[in-house]
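Something for you to look into today, if you have time. Could you write out one complete protein record for me, on any chain you like? Leave the record below and I will have a look.
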Amino acid sequence: MNKMLLIVLPMASTLIFSGCATLAGGGGEQNISINSSTPMKGKLSYSDGKGLQQNFTTPATILVDRRDSNISITSENNEFDPVTLEYNMNPWVWGDIILTSPISTTTDAVTGAMWEYDEVVNLSKK
């Protein structure tokens, strides 16, 4: 019985404390591809003003932290209209809610894996 407990207890703890979105839904970071028909310069920043402020020239792939804040994409030279990437709930969170526990949902919330953005943005000239 003790040997069985040594096997089952760690497995159960892993299931209870790990979030589906953290493990299967991409974790706390996400790549965003930014494309356009011609090279354009722009800047990414979180709408809450904290953290990420990254300049880019298209085409670009930017690694961002997932969080409950929209991402603004603006033009340095007024080449394109500003774009806002809204954060949405990662569908893998439903795995936490339905299959595991509220503790694992907390894990996804703390790591940021609970949220996601569109993976591809296509910019067009003004």
Observations:
- The mean pLDDT is 78.
- The chain has one domain: 2-123.
- The first strand starts at residue 29 and ends at 36.
- The first helix runs from residue 2 to 17.
